[in-house]
Amino acid sequence: MDSFQTKLTHLLRENSRASISDLAQELGSSRKKVKETIDRLVDRKIIKRFTVELSEETEFTPQPFCAVFNIRLVTPNCKQLFADIQKHENILGAWSVSSSETDMLVLVEAKAVEDIEKVRNSIARHPLIQTMYTNTILTTWRDPRSTI
């Protein structure tokens, strides 16, 4: 690599998101020369990729696990069941529904599948519950709670 390429790669290591204009100004060169040099370095595989490096304080937060419990009650008393289960902090929502097989839907979220299983096991033992099955959410297409 010549000295211009070395200076350019040094600047890109410091800030891989720097604009062509900023790099050209820093190097005292034209935007065209900077762009062509970057393209050549990429073509020659000297530059493999442009990355973002996170600070050490930034920690990766995995997406939480979500599930919906479909509950059929012995007697239709969703209000009583909710009063008894609302203590679980993992419950995001609960709905009475009109269905021949389900009386209530309960949405839960947790950092680990094991936590969802604990909540499920606790709720499933309730005397009002006749049957309960779980749907795990695989992909979220829209969530009004999302900030992204």
From TrEMBL:
Biological processes per GO annotation: response to amino acid
SUPFAM superfamilies registered for this protein in UniProt: Dimeric alpha+beta barrel, Winged helix' DNA-binding domain
Keywords from the UniProt entry: DNA-binding, Transcription, Transcription regulation
Domain HTH asnC-type stretches: 1-72
Record-linked InterPro entries: AsnC-type_HTH_dom, Dimeric_a/b-barrel, Tscrpt_reg_AsnC-like, WH-like_DNA-bd_sf, WH_DNA-bd_sf
GO cellular component: cytosol
Example of a GO MF term: sequence-specific DNA binding
PROSITE patterns assigned: HTH_ASNC_2
UniProt keyword RNA-binding present: no
Descriptive protein name: HTH asnC-type domain-containing protein
Annotated organism of origin: Roseovarius albus
